[in-house]
């Protein structure tokens, strides 16, 4: 009955006006054009240029950039940078502006969240330097900078991966890709607004499901959505480098869209923390980007994305021996597996047909 | 922090901004006009010629707002909307 009552909560929503919706739809169309047509044209130009050099491929990212200089690459870069910038920051139709037009209503919704054991905030938490120093994926102020940043992030995710049927599909795919097990307690490590958390509750309804993140604005939205949908999920504000959970507390810990956002030093701390939190035999699962397929061209696109989208630690993680780190901190086994994000698995030596993130699935056992 | 540029001449970056925003405005309008025409037609309120023959509706203020929006990228300072601390900025 309690669940039924919660289900009747009116959903708190960002409601962009008609023009903003049309603008965001235009951006999505432009992004799809970039993802397919511009990307394919760029790949063709790459092949032609290599042919003109007698078939000799460039060796480094810098050399490739130099070879690709020209109008097409300029437009390609412009679109990649500015579509994302305008999505958030257009003064009239950007998501930040749209959320601000509803500022008092949305703030009130967050302030009126009922206190509960399902949301634990820590106002004294200290943010790591790298976290505050970079507006990842061009979100102005980052996902913890403004009290309403969680709503902005939630809405923005709709178009991060335009080829997916629905933005939450990837999270269900992860939940299903994790080897089945009798998981009593599950943690979404770096859960954001809970999009990567709730599919695990749906798949393992008997399990105690937790999500932690350092961003209070994101956690509040995660908790709000859990209330609205009648799901019991424990959210807690934590720095992943050192959380407040006891040793060996979880049977399964998973992450999504996270590893590439850390400098390597922090990544090591976080990996050690995950190891501490897992029961012996427990699983650590990471869905992230690594080992971009498509040879020199694939790497060129991915490294360029890193610069154009403020993903400043992405390149270092790409080249990093993450499996080595997992084994070093003590995981008995660690492997990197191909992952189907819904657009099909792309083999290492294959150039993807459309622009895509180089998804990889890491599964390690303590 | 300076916004990134992609063309040999940064003027082209700004021009691209103009064209892009302009195209977006056309799309927004297309959406509204189509929605309106559909409603009018469905409700049998006015024949199409009524729109054609009606008096001017846009005020000078509306015109100014429109123009400012379209041409703003030209005068926009090259300031990034999002931030990366200097020590993390990539080549
Ligand atoms: C790209 S989001 C991914 C969120 C979520 N897993 C998803 O798939 O939607 C990255 C998240 O990591 C969080 N984060 C980054 N560094 C963190 C840290 N040191 N401790 C806790 N959370 C952190 C950010 O606040 C952000 O919510």
Descriptive notes:
The complex is a heterodimer of chains A (366) and B (91). Chain A has 366 residues and is α/β, with parallel strands linked by helices. Chain A folds into 2 domains: 18-111; 119-365, Vaccinia Virus protein VP39 (Rossmann fold, 3-Layer(aba) Sandwich). Helix content of chain A is 45%, strand content 13%. Chain A contains 15 helices and 8 strands. Chain A has helices at residues 2-7, 18-52, 61-68, 71-89, 95-101, 103-111, 129-133, 149-156, 169-177, 198-203, 216-229, 264-277, 295-308, 314-318, 322-328, and strands at residues 119-120, 185-189, 208-213, 233-237, 250-256, 278-289, 333-337, 359-365. Chain A has an 8-stranded mixed beta sheet, with helices on both faces. In chain A, strand 5, helix 12 and strand 6 form a beta-alpha-beta unit. Chain B is elongated and about 65 Å long. Chain B has helices at residues 10-43, 48-53, 60-75. Chain B starts with 9 loop residues before the first helix and ends in a 16-residue tail after the last helix. With 91 residues, chain B is mostly helical. The model of chain B has no long low-confidence stretch (mean pLDDT 86). Chain B has 3 helices and no strands. Chain B has 2 domains: 10-54, no CATH class; 56-91, no CATH class. The structure holds S-adenosylmethionine.
Major interchain interface with per-chain residue totals: A-B, 38 and 27 residues
Proportion of helical residues of chain A = 40-55%
Oligomer: heterodimer
Instruction: Look at the helices and sheets of chain A and give the structural class.
Output: alpha/beta
| Proportion of residues in helical segments of chain B | 55-70%
Number of helices of chain B: 3
Q: Which sequence of SSEs, written as H and E, runs from N to C of chain B?
A: HHH
Sum up the overall morphology of chain B in one term: elongated
Total individual domains of chain B: 2
